[in-house]
Design brief:
The chain has 104 residues and is an alpha+beta fold. Helices cover 27% and strands 15% of the residues. The protein has a three-stranded antiparallel β-sheet.
């Protein structure tokens, strides 16, 4: 069986869709630094859209990001703007030594 990966979908009439493609956006969650928000709050970043929001706890931040994405998509649709299928997202970390921090 051959698998087909769809990267984007161009539709001549935005109000008429023959195919619904589920869209999956990566959400990067980070604990809010002390003093920026009340204790227990996290930031949720949506890199593909350049959006950031926050919520209480990781699930609260995730739910806020989902709401924000839906609002953003609705605004794009209302304006008749194209919505690209999100690209793959990779996350990595880098360890920085204490000596590198002292010399900066």
């Amino acid at each position: 069986m051959e698998l087909l990966q769809i990267q984007s979908l161009a539709v001549a009439r935005p109000e008429f869709y023959l195919l619904t493609i589920p869209m999956m956006y990566a959400i990067l969650v980070e604990k809010a630094p002390s003093g920026e928000l009340p204790a227990g709050f996290y930031y949720a970043h949506v890199p593909a859209l350049g959006l950031t929001t926050h919520g209480r706890g990781i699930e609260g931040a995730r739910a806020a990001a989902e709401d924000l994405i839906k609002l953003w998509l609705a605004e794009k649709k209302a304006a008749g703007e194209a919505i690209d299928v999100p690209s793959e997202f990779f996350f990595s970390t880098v360890d920085i030594s204490e000596s590198a921090l002292q010399s900066a």
